[in-house]
Amino acid sequence: MRLDIVTPEKLAFSDEIDSVVVPGGEGELGILPSHAPIVSTLAPGELRYRKGGQETSLAIGTGIVEVSHDRVSVLTDMALGAEEVDESAVERAIEAAKKAMTEKLVPEETAAAQLALQKSLAQLHVKRRKRQL
């Protein structure tokens, strides 16, 4: 099946794959060829796809996933492989987000800080997962 991952900046990935797992808004969603059509929201987290017996992980942000026939389209605000993640910058972003959440903020600012924290944690997870393999 075809997997296309698109961010506002670029086509981050486009290729034939065997399977994909995306962090859906309600939990992980595993997709195999001939999956029933579906549209779901995405939560920041780890997208994993398999091709030829090899698994690859990407840190993704919020967005949507659409499955139709043998095509999976992921539209997201972030898609980064482990090699694109600057671990020290991510750790600084995590600390900044945690600090922002301890301050008295309006609900919108708290939500933005929580989202920034989730995206940073997804990047850190993908970066450190690559090292463990």
Number of domains: 2
Q: Give the helix tally.
A: 2
Structural class based on helices, strands and sheet pairing: alpha+beta
Main sheet: strands, sense, barrel:
5 strands, mixed
**Measured distance between first and last alpha carbons:** 26 Å
CATH architecture of the largest domain: Sandwich
Fourth-tier CATH superfamily name of the largest domain: F0F1 ATP synthase delta/epsilon subunit, N-terminal
As a percent range, the share of helical residues equals 25-40%
CATH class value of the largest domain: Mainly Beta
Calculate the mean pLDDT score and round it: 90
Physical arrangement of strands within the biggest beta sheet: 2-1-9-8-5
**CATH topological fold name of the largest domain:** ATP Synthase, domain 1
Beta fraction: 35-45%
**What is the total tally of β strands?**
10
Low-confidence stretches: none
Report the radius of gyration as a whole number of Å: 15 Å
Task: Describe the protein's architecture and organization.
The protein has two domains: 2-82, Sandwich (ATP Synthase, domain 1), CATH 2.60.15.10; 85-132. Helix content is 32%, strand content 42%. It is built from two helices and ten strands; from the N terminus they run E-E-E-E-E-E-E-E-E-E-H-H. It is globular. It is an alpha+beta fold and 133 residues long.
Topology readout:
Blueprint: E1 2-6, E2 11-16, E3 19-24, E4 27-31, E5 38-42, E6 45-51, E7 54-60, E8 63-68, E9 71-76, E10 79-81, H1 87-102, H2 107-132
Parallel strand pairs: 1-9
Antiparallel strand pairs: 1-2, 3-4, 3-6, 5-8, 6-7, 7-10, 8-9
Helix pairs in contact: 1-2
